[in-house]
Amino acid sequence: MIALLLAAASAxxxxxxGTPVLARYxxxxxxxxxxxxDGPTSHHTKRGTxxxxxxxxxxxxVIAYFATHGIMTILGExxxxxxxxLLLLMVSVGMGxxxxxxxxxxxxxxxxxxxxxxxxxVGQTAVGVTFAVLALNFPNExxxxxASTAVSFVRDTSFDLAFAGPVIGAILFILWSxxxxxxxxNGVNITDGLDGLAAGASTFVFGAYMLMSxxxxxxxxxxxxxPTNICYxxxxxxxxxxxxxxxxxxxxxxxxxxxxxxxxxxxxxxxLALGGAxxxxxxxxxxxLLLVIMAGLFxxxxxxxxxxxxxxxxxxxxxxxxxxxxxxxxxLKGWEQVTVVARFWIIAGLFVAVALGIFYAEWxxxx
Length: 367
Hints:
66% of the residues lie in helices and 2% in strands. The protein has twelve helices and two strands; from the N terminus they run ααααββαααααααα. The longest helix is centred in the C-terminal third of the chain and has 30 residues. It starts with a helix and ends with a helix.
């Protein structure tokens, strides 16, 4: 487990030291956040805060990942990056690039809208399709690919999308993956409205995936000592745990500068990249449906927007909440921003705890 500690520590140091450097560069280039006029008035003080900080969150993770593998290879403790690890980084970086273009248009045009909705959907779909296709390839020596066409909860279920043949199964899996990726990226993006909220909540989720991946490695089907009824058919669980550790380290370093009052904002670059990573973990760790509970805070906040918009249209202009996303509702009720963030972090942690409990309980029942 030295590799996990090394990845987390190196990502933490890189993020903690590099984020203020990036912030000063962005200020020099005048790449500041543009605040929408219809948002809470208290947010107007954030106008001009450097954005696109998410680029260094992911940059720190990528550097830490390859550096850790390089060091562990020299020590004879690693054979190098795996297909699952590279795919996870690819989908995160790919979604981050979509967010980067969105952010760049906002700061360069000095407006609150970046990419058009169709353009953003095209970008996210392109990344999703590429990820899904590649995830069904690259079998290891046991013939196990990074992902499977079976729908998963805490492990693959008996419901296989390839029920009508491998081609139909692959197509359905691509569509299913795009749905998961789109939901996760938009969920984190919507949540990223208060200093530290999305970054802190994401840290809980990645911490949980690290623990789950370690457990899956210890109970992997490739180990003949593990009974087949409780083993996990995840291709590269330890490498997934390494990336999760690096993400936790990078986010903690970023949070040092992102807590109220934020010196830098992750922007869509960061929120889409983190959402892509969360979805990638759900698919590659074979815990797709568990994601609904694991990322419960993001689901709750996204639902608040859906409920508000739907009720507004159906009722002819009436609202359920004072403002959405949900965190803005509590701001307008008089809660301080730090209070909203702290309490929402608690909610995020409780959702993650429930998800971990379900994950472990299933293994105990099978045992």
